[in-house]
Amino acid sequence: MANDLKSLLGYFRALKSIELAAIVAHDGLLIESNALPYVDVDAVCAVASNGVAMSESLGREISKGDSVQILLEYEEGVVLLELMNHEAMLLLVANAREELGYIRFLVALHRDELVEALEAI
Asked: What pTM was estimated for this model as a whole?
């Protein structure tokens, strides 16, 4: 079982549609990533933290509790944010929507390993 974040992020990047797999602090700072060369990882991570803030605010307003997973679908892909703990999240950017079910399955499958690796740093 892989125990470091870089290796774990490789499980997601093994899918052709995944352009970026990253662990990001809730303030937008990059912790670890595995991305295609053209992706501006720092910029994407910084903006992704705004999505979490919006989701958390909305959850409080409608009394639905804390965010667990945030999914943004676009014409040419998806962004998935999975909150790992109160400090970090998994950020996945895919250039296609067709593998969304499998991506969510992989997140569920590797979630505990990601949390353990985060706790180890």
From this structure: 0.91
Q: Which two tokens stand for residue 63?
A: 């009394």
Q: Determine the structural domain holding residue 32 and report its residue range.
A: 5-119
Q: How many domains does the chain have?
A: 1
pLDDT digits (tens, 9 = 90+) for 11-35: 999 999 999 999 999 999 999 999 9
What the block records as the tokens of 46 is: 């910084």
- Reduced to 3 states (helix: H, G, I; strand: E, B; else coil), residue 28 is coil
Inter-residue contact 90 to 18 (CB < 8 Å)? no
Give yes or no for a contact between 24 and 50, defined as CB atoms under 8 angstroms apart: no
Return the CATH number at 94.
Answer: 3.30.450.30
Residue 22 near residue 45 (C-beta atoms within 8 A): yes
